[in-house]
Design a protein that fits this description.
Layout: H1 2-14, H2 19-31, H3 33-38, H4 41-44, H5 47-51, E1 56-65, E2 71-82, E3 88-94, H6 100-116, E4 122-128, H7 137-151, E5 160-163, H8 170-184, H9 207-221, E6 231-234, H10 239-250, E7 254-255, E8 257-260, E9 263-266, H11 273-282, H12 290-293, E10 298-301, E11 319-321, H13 331-339, E12 344-346, H14 355-363, E13 367-369, H15 371-374, H16 377-391, H17 397-421, H18 428-446
Parallel strand pairs: 3-4, 3-5, 6-7, 6-11, 11-12, 12-13
Antiparallel strand pairs: 1-2, 2-4, 8-9, 9-10
Length: about 450
C-alpha cells in the first residue's frame, strides 16, 4: 500500500538511525492495510502520521558519582508517545544498549499493547544507557536519585506512570520512588512495581511471565491442545523468564531451558525453579553456577551456539517462550523450532522475533502470540496496581491473578476475532495490531486534532 510505504519512508528520513523503531513501526503499519482499505476515515484524519510521532520526547543528562567519587554521565530518556486512552504508561530500562531508537520502538509497541488490555492507559517508555551490573547498591541509589531529579517534573499519577523493565527491578523502583516523593512532596502511585510495603500489588512481579503462559493456554485451547505434560523452552533468566517457568509448572508443563547473555542451561528433567530464583534473584550471579547444584544439566556458553543462531531454540519442544530481549529469535531459529515439532510461540519479551521469523510463524499458521498481545500482562497488572493505589485498597494474590487471566483471555479473544474479521483467523499479528490501533485511533478522532 503506497500510503503506508510513504509513512515508513517519512520515518526513515525524519528519525534517522533508529532501526528498532523502524522495525516496530513497519510491522504495525503493514498489518493495518486491510483496515485502511475498509475504513478511509483513518487516512482522512491522518491517524497514522500522527500516531508514529510521540506527543513528547524528553532527553536529559544524568550526572552521578561512583563509590570512589568519580563523576559519570549517562543519558536519560522518556518518550511520552500517546495519551488518547489514559496517562502514559510503560517501563524504564537501564541497559547499555538503550538509545533513542530502542526507547521509541518500546514506546510505540506500548501504545497498542496497552490498548489491547482494555484498560485506561496510554503508551510511553523510558530509561538510560546506565548499566546496573557490577554496581554497588549505593551507586545504583545515587544514579536513580540523579535520574529522578530530572524525570520527576514530567510524571505524575494521572500524567505519566513509569514502571520497571530490564535493569529496573524492585530495588531501583524503591530508590526512584523515594526521590520522587522527596522532590514532589507527594505520596502517590506515580510508579508501579512498588514494594508491597508501600503501595505495590501482589502478582505484579509474576504478571508478565504468567500472562505469556495464559496467552499460550488460550491459543492452544482453540486448537484442542494443552500445555500439560509438554516440553517447553524459555529464553532469559530475568523476571519474565522465571515466572513464565513458574506458571508453566503450575499448568503441568515441563520447562527445560533458560539463558543469560553468557549462555544457556538445558535441564531435561525440568528447570529447578528454586535454584534459578536463588541464583538470579538472591545471589545475582551468572547461569553457569546452575550446574554446580544440578550436575546433570548442561550449560552451553554463547560461543558454543551454532553461528547465527540462539542455542535455546535448537532444543526440541512443543512450545517456545522468547523472554529475553528484542530480535533474539531469527529466521533460522524459527525454522529449527518448526522442524523440531514446536507448534506454539508466545512472546514474553518485546519484539523478540525478527520480521523474517514472524513471517515464518504466520505462514505456517502455528499458534503464535506476538509480544504486544502475549506479554501485555505486566502492564495490565501495573494498571491494577494503579487502581489499588487510587482507592487505597489491596487485593489478594488470587484476585489479581484471576483478573490477569481474564485480561489475557480478553486480549486473545479480541485479537482472534479481529483477525477473523479481516480474513485470516490464525494471524494474531494482524489481529492484535488492528485491534490495538483501532481503539486508539477512534479515541484520537473523537478527541479532535490535539
Amino acid at each position: 500500500m503506497g500510503y503506508v510505504r510513504e509513512v515508513c519512508d517519512y520515518l526513515a528520513r525524519t528519525s534517522p538511525a533508529q532501526a528498532e523503531f523502524y522495525q516496530a513501526a513497519q510491522e504495525v503499519l503493514m498489518s493495518l492495510r486491510p483496515l485502511m482499505e475498509k475504513y478511509p476515515k483513518y487516512q482522512e484524519h491522518k491517524i497514522i502520521e500522527r500516531i508514529v510521532e510521540p506527543e513528547r520526547q524528553i532527553l536529559f543528562r544524568v550526572n552521578w558519582t561512583d563509590d570512589k567519587g568519580e563523576i559519570h554521565i549517562n543519558k536519560g530518556y522518556r518518550i511520552e508517545f500517546n495519551s488518547a486512552l489514559g496517562p502514559y504508561k510503560g517501563g524504564l530500562r537501564f541497559h547499555p544498549s538503550v538509545n533513542a531508537g530502542v526507547i521509541k520502538f518500546l514506546g510505540f509497541e506500548q501504545i497498542f499493547k496497552n490498548s489491547l488490555t482494555g484498560l485506561q492507559i496510554g503508551g510511553g517508555k523510558g530509561g538510560s544507557d546506565f548499566d546496573p551490573k557490577g554496581k554497588s547498591d549505593n551507586e545504583i541509589m545515587r544514579f536513580c536519585q540523579a535520574f529522578m531529579s530530572e524525570l520527576y517534573r514530567h510524571i505524575g499519577a494521572t500524567t505519566d506512570v513509569p514502571a520497571g523493565d530490564i535493569g529496573v527491578g524492585g530495588r531501583e523502583i524503591g530508590y526512584l520512588f523515594g526521590m520522587y516523593k522527596k522532590l514532589a512532596n507527594s505520596y502517590e502511585g506515580v510508579l508501579t512495581g512498588k514494594s508491597l510495603l508501600w503501595g505495590g500489588s501482589l502478582a505484579r512481579t509474576e504478571a508478565t511471565g504468567y500472562g505469556a503462559v495464559y496467552f499460550a493456554k488460550y491459543m492452544l485451547e482453540d486448537r484442542g491442545e494443552t500445555l500439560k505434560g509438554k516440553r517447553c523452552v524459555v529464553s532469559g533468566s530475568g523476571n519474565v523468564s522465571i515466572y513464565t517457568i513458574e506458571k508453566l509448572y503450575q499448568l503441568g508443563a515441563l520447562p527445560i531451558t533458560c539463558s543469560d547473555s553468557n549462555g544457556m542451561i538445558y535441564d531435561e528433567d525440568g528447570i529447578d525453579l528454586a535454584l534459578l530464583k536463588e541464583l538470579k534473584e538472591t545471589k545475582r550471579v551468572r547461569l553457569n553456577e546452575y550446574t554446580k547444584s544440578r550436575p546433570n544439566a548442561k550449560y552451553t556458553p554463547v560461543s558454543g551456539y551454532k553461528e547465527g543462531t540462539n542455542g535455546v531454540w535448537s532444543i526440541p519442544c512443543f512450545a517456545a517462550f522468547p523472554s529475553a530481549t528484542q530480535n533474539e529469535l531469527n529466521a533460522q531459529d524459527a525454522k529449527t523450532l518448526l522442524a523440531n515439532g514446536c507448534i506454539c510461540v508466545s512472546e514474553g519479551a518485546n519484539m523478540p522475533s525478527t520480521p523474517e521469523a514472524v513471517d515464518i510463524f504466520v505462514e505456517n499458521k502455528i499458534a503464535y502470540g506476538p509480544g504486544k498481545a502475549a506479554n501485555a500482562g505486566g502492564v495490565a497488572t501495573s494498571q491494577l496496581e494503579m487502581q489499588q493505589n487510587a482507592s487505597m485498597t489491596n487485593w489478594t494474590f488470587e484476585e489479581v491473578d484471576a483478573k490477569l487471566a481474564q485480561i489475557m483471555k480478553n486480549i486473545y479473544t479480541n485479537a482472534s476475532a479481529t483477525a477473523a474479521e479481516f480474513g485470516d483467523p490464525t494471524n494474531l499479528v494482524m489481529g492484535a495490531n488492528i485491534a490495538g490501533f483501532r481503539k486508539v485511533a477512534d479515541a484520537m478522532i473523537e478527541q479532535g486534532l490535539v
